[in-house]
Amino acid sequence: MRTLKISILDSSAQRCLVLEGTLSAPWTEELRAAWARANADLQNRKLIVDLKNVTAITQDGENTILKLMSEGAKFRSRGVLTKHVLRELSRKHRRNVGRKIDVLHKGMEEPKSTQ
User: Fold this and answer.
1) Could you tell me which residues come within 8 angstroms of residue 73 by beta carbon, excluding any fewer than 6 positions away?
2) Is residue 91 part of a domain?
């Protein structure tokens, strides 16, 4: 079984979740739990998810990254493949946010007169 190591590095300006290994199930649930714990006690620091040492990302891993993006996660990476995956997921996230805003605006439009 492939594994994922999650380390937490704290400084006065930021908290960093450093991931090493394969981002796949069941480790995606562990990442979500680590994100929630790390996000709960930031004390005005930035929270960064560092993917520099991730060797593979499965579909479940991509779904987890997308979920964390929707919760405000910021990512750091290197390597062509990881950067490409993050870029594509970021585009998908922006499209999803745009759709939600469109739905909100449509719901706020005044009803048309039936006269």
Assistant:
1) 35, 47, 49, 65
2) yes
Write down the pTM of the prediction: 0.80
Look up the domain containing 56 and give its range: 4-108
42-56 b/e with 16+ CB inside 10 Å = b? eeeeebbbbbeebee
Confirm whether 74 is domain-assigned. yes
pLDDT tens, position by position, 6-33: 999 999 999 999 999 999 999 999 999 9
> Looking at residue 94, what DSSP letter applies?
H
Provide the residue type at 20 as one letter.
Answer: E
- For residue range 77-89, list pLDDT tens digits in order: 999 989 999 999 9
Does the residue 113 lie in any domain? no
The contacts of residue 42 (CB under 8 Å, 6+ apart) are: 15
Pull the structure tokens for residue 88. 């594509």
Distance between CA 5 and CA 23 in Å, rounded? 9
